[in-house]
Specification:
The chain is built from 10 helices and 15 strands. The chain has about 425 residues and is of the alpha+beta class. Among the domains are: about 130 residues, Jelly Rolls (Sandwich); about 170 residues, Histidine kinase-like ATPase, C-terminal domain (Heat Shock Protein 90). The strands form 4 sheets. Strands 10-12-13-15-14 form a 5-stranded mixed β-sheet. A 4-stranded antiparallel β-sheet has the order 1-8-3-6. Strands 2-7-4-5 form a 4-stranded antiparallel β-sheet, with no helix packed on it. The radius of gyration is 36 Å and the shape is elongated. The chain starts with 7 loop residues before the first helix and ends in a 14-residue tail after the last strand. About 30% of the residues are buried. The structure holds adenosine-5'-diphosphate.
Length: about 425
C-alpha cells in the first residue's frame, strides 16, 4: 500500500488506523504502542498552494511529514530577497532541525501546490525519535543529503561569484591602467614647464625690483610656493608610477637613520615651529647602518613625517623610534616607528590608505597647505612609501585606535627593513 498517495480526506476518512499505517511505513521499528501514540499526537493538516507552513526565524514547535503535495524550502538572503534551497514531496519531512536544536526555524517552508501534512508536536516527536532508530537514521540521511546539496550549491555559487569578481577585477585593472597611464603621461608633460616656471619664479624672487617691493615680494613668494608644490606633486606621481611599473632601480649604500631623520627634521623645521609640534627621535643612534637606497629611504620616511605633521593638531607630538628586531621571514631588521598624537585612522582605512590616490574623507574638506593641519595632498605619499619599503624587501603597516578629531588617539606607522644585503637591483629609482 502506497500511503504517500493518500489525500487528506482519505486519511481523515479512514481515521487513525490509516495515519498509523502511513507512519508505520515511514518509521518502521516503532512498537505498536508508540505508533498508536504518535498517530494520536499527529494532526492531519491541509494547506492551499502558496501557504507558509514554517517561517525562518520563528520558534519551531512541530515536525511535519508530507502526505501529499509539494513544498519549497527557502532561505532569506536579506530583507527583500529569499533563495530557493530545495523542494520536498510525499514521504519527506521538515521542521525536525529546530526541534532537535531547540531553536528557531532555519528556513521558510511554503507549499508549491495544495499539500497535506502530518503535524507532530515537539514532545511526541522527541519521544519517538528516541524510540525509532529508523526515524533517527532517516533524519541523519536527510540532514546529510541536505548538507551535500548545500555544499554543492555553495560551491557552484562561489565559482560563479569568483568568475564575476575576476571579470570585474580585470575590468577595474584595465580602467586603473588607463588612468595611471594618463596621469603618468600628463605628469611627464607638465613637469618640464612647471620646473621652468619654478626656476623663473625663483629668479624673479631675487630680482632687485621685487626685493624692494614688499607687495611684489609676497606675490612672487606665493607663485614660488604654489609652483614648488605642483612640481613636488608631479615628482610624486612619477615616483609612484616607477614603483608601480617596477621600472626603478635601487642604488644601495649604507644608510644612517640619524642622518635621514636629521635631514627630514631640517626640511620641516619651519613647519614644526609654526605648528608648535614636538619632534622627538629615540634609539636611532644605536641602529646599525642599513644597506638601502638613501634617496628612496629618505622619501619614504619624509612622507610618513609629513603625514604625521599634517594629521596632528597644533601643539602635538611626533616621535620616531628605532630599534633592531628579529622578524620571522625577514630575519634581523631595523624597525622604525613614526608615531603621532593626531586624529588617528579608522580601522577600515588602515590598509586602504596605502592605495594610490586614496584619501580619507572628502578631498574638498582638506586645507591646502602641505604641512597645515589636514593639509591637502594627492593621496600618493603612503603608496610611494609602501612601494619603496617593499622594493627593499621590508614591511610597512599602520596602527591606530581609531579616527577621532576631538580625542586625537594618534597613529603609528611601522617600517621594518631587513639588515641583510639587498639581492641585486630591485625595482625603484632614486631620481627626483
Ligand atoms: P595624502 O597626500 O592625502 O596625505 P597619503 O597617501 O600620504 O596621501 O595618505 C593617505 C591618507 O591616509 C591621508 O589622506 C590620510 O587620510 C591618511 N593618513 C596618512 N597618514 C596619517 C596620519 N599620520 N594620521 C592620520 N591619517 C593619516
Amino acid at each position: 500500500m502506497c500511503y504517500t498517495n493518500l489525500a487528506m480526506d482519505r486519511l481523515s476518512d479512514q481515521g487513525l488506523p490509516a495515519v498509523e499505517d502511513f507512519l508505520r511505513s515511514l518509521f518502521f521499528g516503532l512498537d505498536e504502542e508508540e505508533l498508536a501514540r504518535l498517530a494520536q499526537a499527529a494532526r492531519v493538516r491541509a494547506f492551499p498552494a502558496g501557504e507558509v507552513i514554517c517561517r525562518e526565524g520563528e520558534p519551531g514547535d512541530a515536525f511535519y511529514v508530507i502526505v501529499e503535495g509539494q513544498v519549497g524550502v527557502y532561505k532569506q538572503v536579506d530583507d527583500t530577497e529569499e533563495r530557493w534551497l530545495n523542494s520536498l514531496g510525499p514521504g519527506e519531512f521538515f521542521g525536525e532541525l529546530a526541534l532537535v536544536q531547540e531553536g528557531t526555524r532555519n528556513a521558510t517552508v511554503r507549499t508549491l501546490e495544495p499539500t497535506t501534512v502530518l503535524e507532530i508536536g515537539r514532545e511526541p516527536f522527541l519521544r519517538v525519535l528516541g524510540a525509532s532508530p529508523s526515524l533517527a537514521v532517516r533524519i541523519l540521511v536527510q540532514l546529510g543529503r541536505r548538507l551535500v546539496e548545500a555544499d554543492r550549491r555553495a560551491l557552484a555559487e562561489l565559482r560563479e561569484a569568483n568568475e564575476q569578481l575576476r571579470l570585474a577585477l580585470e575590468r577595474l585593472e584595465r580602467l586603473d591602467r588607463t588612468k595611471t597611464d594618463f596621469i603618468q603621461v600628463s605628469a611627464h608633460e607638465l613637469r618640464t614647464p612647471v620646473a621652468a616656471l619654478l626656476g623663473y619664479a625663483q629668479m624673479m624672487q631675487d630680482h632687485p625690483l621685487v626685493q624692494k617691493d614688499e607687495q611684489l615680494r609676497a606675490l612672487v613668494q606665493g607663485i614660488v610656493d604654489s609652483t614648488d608644490r605642483l612640481h613636488r606633486i608631479f615628482n610624486s606621481i612619477l615616483d609612484l608610477s616607477r614603483v608601480i611599473e617596477g621600472d626603478v632601480k635601487i642604488h644601495p649604500s649604507p644608510v644612517s637613520f640619524p642622518v635621514v631623520f636629521q635631514g627630514i627634521r631640517d626640511e620641516f623645521q619651519e613647519a614644526l615651529e609654526e605648528r608648535n609640534l614636538t619632534f622627538e627621535v629615540k634609539g636611532l643612534h644605536d641602529l646599525p647602518f642599513c644597506q638601502a637606497d638613501p634617496v628612496l629611504i629618505y622619501k619614504a620616511f619624509r612622507h610618513l613625517v609629513n603625514n604625521a605633521i599634517k594629521y596632528t593638531p597644533d601643539g602635538g607630538r611626533i616621535t620616531v623610534t628605532g630599534e633592531e628586531v628579529e622578524v620571522p621571514d625577514l630575519g634581523r631588521c631595523v624597525q622604525i616607528v613614526v608615531e603621532d598624537t593626531g586624529i588617528g585612522i579608522a580601522p577600515e582605512d588602515l590598509d586602504l590608505i596605502f592605495e594610490k590616490f586614496y584619501r580619507v574623507g572628502e578631498a574638498s574638506l582638506h586645507s591646502s597647505g602641505t604641512t597645515a593641519f589636514k593639509g591637502g595632498g594627492p593621496g600618493l605619499g603612503l603608496a610611494i612609501a609602501r612601494g619603496v619599503v617593499l622594493a627593499h624587501g621590508g614591511r610597512i603597516w599602520a596602527e591606530s585606535p581609531g579616527y577621532d578629531e576631538e580625542a586625537c588617539p594618534g597613529s603609528r606607522f611601522i617600517v621594518q627593513l631587513p639588515l641583510r644585503p639587498l639581492e641585486g637591483e630591485a625595482a625603484v629609482d632614486g631620481e627626483e
